Amino acid sequence: MNILDNGIESYLNDVIPDRDSVLTAMEEYATQNNFPIVGPLVGRLLYVLAYATKAKRVLELGSGFGYSAYWFAKAVGNDGIVLCTDKNPENEKKAKAYFKRGKISDRMQFHTGDALSIFDIAEGDFDIIFNDVDKELYPKVFKKAIPRLKKGGLLISDNALWKGKVLDKNPDAATAGVLTYTRLAYSSRELFNTIIPLRDGVIVSVKL
Ligand SMILES: C[S@@+](CC[C@H](N)C(=O)[O-])C[C@H]1O[C@@H](n2cnc3c(N)ncnc32)[C@H](O)[C@@H]1O
Question: Residue of the nearest CA to atom 26 in ligand 1?
Fold first, then answer.
């Protein structure tokens, strides 16, 4: 199920300006290889959220080849850091090549392995934690992420509407992961949440 009306989605895509040459190349790679990136509409949302909150320390869980991280990198500026994670070593190689082309390597770190293990390795708390790992893991991510978020920090998760499967009467494991995460977020006294129905849905939670 498309979350947005097709005409509205086309309008939103037509109204935004062209991306820089590196983001454009990343979008082309994603299209050619059927790789699920957040795309420019959500990319711009990530930029706005990071820039508006003056985020300087961003942790990404499930970075793929670095497309969403690239938007964060632009927003945090050259005194910020974006810590990327992905389980596939090929993604780290590709991401680093794109970061070099975009002259943002100075603010990027990449950990290859299970994204959840980063919570045992990385020191300090984060202004933004962005979650885009396998959907079954969302509840685990939620529990690990909240204690590592600064007060006023944002926990952002992609695919909050999961192609409309959140409406399924018999949800599969991935959908159940998204549903449980959403329930955890809305029942937490530590968070204030909103779901933005852009692309596949983005849930944004601020730590109170
Ligand atoms: C949807 S893609 C990420 C796209 C990226 N956020 C973007 O928009 O540019 C999900 C990525 O998460 C990675 N992933 C899924 N589960 C993971 C886990 N448990 N640990 C590390 N990486 C994981 C996959 O290898 C894949 O590259």
Answer: 64
- Enumerate domains of the chain plus CATH numbers: 6-207 (3.40.50.150)
Rounded to the nearest angstrom, the distance between the alpha carbon of 8 and the centre of ligand 1 is 27
Confidence tier at 195 by pLDDT (50, 70, 90): very high
The residue among 80, 149, 85, 78 whose CA lies nearest residue 112 is 85
Measuring from atom 12 of ligand 1, which residue has the nearest CA? 62
CA distance 52 to 68: 17
**Span 122-167, pLDDT tens digits:** 999 999 999 999 999 999 999 999 999 999 999 999 999 999 999 9
User: Residue 13 has which token pair?
Assistant: 């895509």
* pTM summary value: 0.98
In the chain the first and final C-alpha atoms are separated, in Å, by: 33
Q: What percent of the chain has pLDDT over 90?
A: 99
DSSP 108-129: EEEEES-GGGHHHH--S-EEEE
- Ligand 1 pocket check for 38: Cβ under 6 Å: yes
Q: Does 155 sit in the ligand 1 pocket, CB within 6 Å?
A: no
Alpha-carbon gap, residue 29 to 65, rounded angstroms:
10
